[in-house]
Each structure stands twice: as C-alpha cells, then as structure tokens.
Amino acid sequence: MKKFFILFFLVFLTGCYQVKKTYFINPDGKGKVIIDAVLPVVSLNLNQNNSEKPDFEEKVKEIIEKSKGVDGWKDIKWEETEEGKLHFTGVAYFSDINSLKIGKIGILNPEMKKVNGEYLLTIRMEKGKKKKEKKKISQEEINKIVEKEKKNYFQMKSLLIGFFTDLKEEDVFYLPGKIEKISNFKKISENTASIEIKGEKILKVIDDIMKD
User: Fold this and answer.
1) For 112, what's the count of Cα atoms within 13 Å in the CB-facing half-sphere?
2) Cβ(167)–Cβ(198) under 8 Å?
3) Which residues are CB-neighbours of 77 under 8 A, at least 6 positions away?
4) What's the N-to-C CA distance of the chain in angstroms?
5) pLDDT 10s digit of each residue in the chain, 212 long?
C-alpha cells in the first residue's frame, strides 16, 4: 500500500499532461530523443495572484536546466496552447541513456544494459527524494491511515477525474537490433517498440485498490 500511495501522489502532482518521447538508441547507449510535450504551467504558491500570466519562458528554461545526462539540445520550440498550456518540442542528445532524465517531463525513464551478450531495455518510474527512516508503526495505525486515505480519495475523486483524463505518456524506442523478446511493451516493428500510460487506466487501478 505504501508504494501505491507514493506512485498515486506522484502521478497526481504531474497530471494533466500529454507527452511523447521518441528515442533513437545506438548499440553503445548513445543517441537522441525527440520530445513533444503539452504541459500545465501552474504555481503551487497559494499567495500568488491567480490572474498573473504563467511564465512560459521560465518553464522552458527549467526543463532544460533540470535535465540530466543531456549533451546538447537542438530544435527547441515552444508555444502557448489555446488551453493556456505549454507545448514544448525539442531534440536532446545523450551519451548514456541510463543517465538521461528530461527535466519534469513524464515519469517513465528507460534503462539499457547488456546481459549475456544481449541488450535489455527496461522502464523505471521516476524516483522521489529519499526520505529519512521513520519509526515503525503498528498495524492498527496503518489501518487507520489507509481508511483515512480512502475517504480522502473518494472525496477528491471528481477532481481527480479531471486531472487524469488528460494524462498520457508514450515512449517509442528505435533500438540498435532486432527484438527477440518483449513484455509490457508494444512491438511496432522488428526493432521498434513503445510503451504507454493513460490517466483513465491509472484511475481504474486506484479505484479497484481503494474498494478492497
């Protein structure tokens, strides 16, 4: 249950986005990723004047500065959509896909390693900051926390539906060799695969867990 709540709140806080990342990966792990993302530009500062226009240039700067493992950028473009969101596109070049993290765009991160002479591509979820170790709590306390979170969830459900409806992330991978085995990915061609998450599917999973 603990792992579920971490994932749930992570997705909730990064909701209302549509992201597509297309990776072209070389055998040595180097390559490029083409990013096409529509993102909300909001402030969590409750004291901020809501009528103030979002700073899209600052958001673009933040994406670039908070990216990790990027050797260089190309063809960066952005615009404001009719809904007031940021539409960001660009190409990021990398030397090691395992060190790559595109700043605050999506929660899926690829890793590639060589196992028994074959390449293995996996996806990991974005990790939050490491928390300090907490004291152990009793099962009774855990049950109370779970019940409280269930009530909070059902009270917020109508709001969450709006958040999750627009959430979509798709990663496409052009790989340096023929795909021999595949699991959880969708095979597009002999060397191309994709993986996708959608908000409505996540919401259904949360619903099922909360009803247990």
Assistant:
1) 21
2) yes
3) 88, 89, 90
4) 11
5) 444 444 444 444 445 678 999 999 998 889 999 999 998 876 544 454 555 667 889 999 999 999 999 999 999 999 999 888 899 999 999 999 999 999 888 878 898 888 887 888 888 766 544 445 556 777 777 777 777 776 776 666 666 666 666 778 899 999 988 898 888 899 999 999 999 887 666 666 666 666 66
3-state secondary structure of 43: coil
The structure's pTM equals 0.72
CA 185/CA 194 separation, integer angstroms? 6
Domains of the chain, residue spans: 12-137+170-198
* Alpha carbon distance 183, 193 (integer Å): 10
Strand partners, 206: none
State how far the Cα of 41 lies from the Cα of 139, in Å rounded to an integer.
Answer: 40
Distance CA 178, CA 119 (A): 10
Three state DSSP letters for 85-151: CEEEEEEEEECCHHHCECCCCCCEEEEEEEECCEEEEEEEECCCCCCCCCCCCCHHHHHHHHHHHHH
